[in-house]
């Protein structure tokens, strides 16, 4: 296509030629201010469709190069390929979680919804994302100085369980690390139970004192207590000597590892964190009861049991479902003032299996 346009005046003239070939328009224009002055201008314009095609070609080439790079790593460096694939997938999952959390927060602000009124999955997403970020912040701070990122990669390779969040674990590492974390948690079960027994000896009410000591003896002997046995002593945990505000600092520090909380903090701060964690679990239980236990898939069911203190990886799905059903049945009778109440609802014994006593603030 050719287009000619001319305007002639005493001191001004325009010549414009347009030729379109292969989606590219080449324009020649000349502007004459006077009879002796002439300024030629050449411009190249690409149509939006043409620019889109170029962009798609670039993306396609980058994807092809990345696929060849992954194939090269998989063939010649299989161990490094597993780390590389896990890292790239972890980045995608982390950004996906961040996007979902942003949507949840926006919806909360728009609709004036409180945390305790959220659906179960949204509440669990916020809780887990917050814990992941708390764990990831120290590693991000270490990587700030120049060339410190090389040290970070070494630390990530040597200490993946301690430094990396779950997004950057392989499936095998997730199973392994969950077992290791629970074994560390189970090491404190006996101390927590003995502390509970020791505190029970100072209970003034004779009937409640006998009930508490009998319950401790029953758990130590490997007998799974009934919900009614735990409900009978519920009133002890609303005040002295078993409420969070009344137990001593050593008991608080023994309880922290059960919830993967650090005990290396001042005593008042530990008490505040334990209380917040107990209330958070109580709100999760309320949301899960509304959601319906039957709507959880297998991974969500195991995760819910694990968060509440059970080594769900060593049990069947039916055992996990039964245990969590009993937990929710008991939790439905609790109030905020009794959320320091420990529940000992494990189906296995403390001296034979690590998941024996599940002493949990709730």
Structure overview:
By secondary structure, the chain is an alpha+beta fold. 57% of the residues lie in helices and 12% in strands. The chain is built from 13 helices and six strands. The strands form two sheets. It has a four-stranded antiparallel sheet with strand order 1-2-3-4. A two-stranded antiparallel ribbon has the order 5-6. Strand 3 and strand 4 form a beta hairpin. Helix 3 packs antiparallel against helix 11, helix 7 runs antiparallel to helix 8 and helix 10 packs across helix 11.
Précis, in short:
The protein has 362 residues and is α+β, with helices and mostly antiparallel strands. The chain has helices spanning 48-76, 78-111, 120-142, 148-158, 160-163, 171-186, 189-200, 206-220, 227-231, 249-255, 267-291, 298-307, 317-331; strands at residues 2-8, 13-21, 24-34, 37-46, 342-344, 359-361. The protein is built from 13 helices and six strands.
Which strand-content bin applies to the residues? Answer: 5-15%
Output the number of helix runs. Answer: 13
Q: Count the beta strands.
A: 6
Low-pLDDT residue intervals, each spanning 5 or more residues: 1-44, 342-362
Pfam families: LETM1_RBD
GO molecular function: ribosome binding
Protein name: Letm1 RBD domain-containing protein
Organism: Oncorhynchus tshawytscha
Topology (elements, then pairings):
Elements: E1 2-8, E2 13-21, E3 24-34, E4 37-46, H1 48-76, H2 78-111, H3 120-142, H4 148-158, H5 160-163, H6 171-186, H7 189-200, H8 206-220, H9 227-231, H10 249-255, H11 267-291, H12 298-307, H13 317-331, E5 342-344, E6 359-361
Antiparallel strand pairs: 1-2, 2-3, 3-4, 5-6
Keywords: Membrane, Mitochondrion, Mitochondrion inner membrane, Transmembrane, Transmembrane helix
Organism: Oncorhynchus tshawytscha (Chinook salmon)
Domain Letm1 RBD: 161-362
